[in-house]
Amino acid sequence: MAKSTPKTLSFEEPLMQLKTKINELKEYTTTAEVDLSAEIKGLEERLSKLEKDTYENMKPWDRVQVARHPERPTTLDYIPFLFEDFIELHGDRSFGDDEAIVGGIASFQGQPVTVIGHQRGKDTKENIRRNFGMPHPEGYRKALRLMKQAEKFNRPVICLIDTKGAYPGKAAEERGQSEAIARNLVEMAGLEIPVLSIVIGEGGSGGALALGVGNHVLMLENSTFSVISPEGAASILWKDAALAQTAAEAMKITAPDLLEMGIIEHIIPEVRGGAHHDYKKQAAYISASIKHSFNELNGLSAQQLIDQRYNKFKAIGIFGE
Questions:
Q1: What is the pTM (predicted TM-score) of this model?
Q2: Count of domains in the chain?
Q3: Distance separating alpha carbons of residues 293 and 188, to the nearest angstrom
Q4: Which positions fall inside the CoA carboxyltransferase C-terminal domain (predicted)?
Q5: DSSP state of 166
Q6: Which of 193, 210, 237, 218 is nearest to 292 (CA)?
Q7: Cβ contacts of residue 217 below 8 Å, gap of 6+?
């Protein structure tokens, strides 16, 4: 369920200060029996304008902060609002079960689907359990197993992307991290069913792309999709991670940038202030976008789906004067 008092981000501080002032005046009016309605109305009008200016003119670094918000809804937060009869399936049938990726079968508005998504935690204990949303190779092999199962039973696949990247640890590399990601890219490209990938938070590096080879790639308004984090890019380019804000602007990692470049098909709007303010309402926006994509993709044949996916990714990176 939605959080009632989400943590404040730095660019929201002026809004929070004004809201606090309005609440104080309202409380004072009640206790002191003084009519301050005119002053309160003026401040509320000012707040409305400030909210519009703040949320409609967010800079790339502001969106990075929102995408990383600790209370931002995760895959398991969205599933109850988006799908019916979800049954989680576990394991890659080779090594084990990676809890940084969850997946299973469900129903979307009466249509059977397979749902796969990155899963991070909301607190330290759960983050350790979920490895901070950074999958091991068995996580990607589990995802691929579910995709091939979906293809066998002609179920569309919906992937929810939210990871800083694949886990770079020694054990993950020993078990074939790079091969697992590469295998997913190859196999997803040839799936004979509709594949829909939705970036709901951070879409980082190959860890995100391993679930991102979709016929349609959608992004929430304040999500990011990039080959590396702004801090990582700043460390490489300028030897200073403190320049992450500058890197975020240069990298073109926000949804509006990626839509303009033709990398994604659609931006899913967010509730004012970010998805963490109202999980249910945000899920309704996502549901409408899934339905819109299915209306376009469900009528395509297996070969048409493969061709559409191939042509989409082949066109990325081609620019004309």
A1: 0.86
A2: 2
A3: 17
A4: 42-296
A5: S
A6: 218
A7: 197, 198, 199, 263, 264, 265
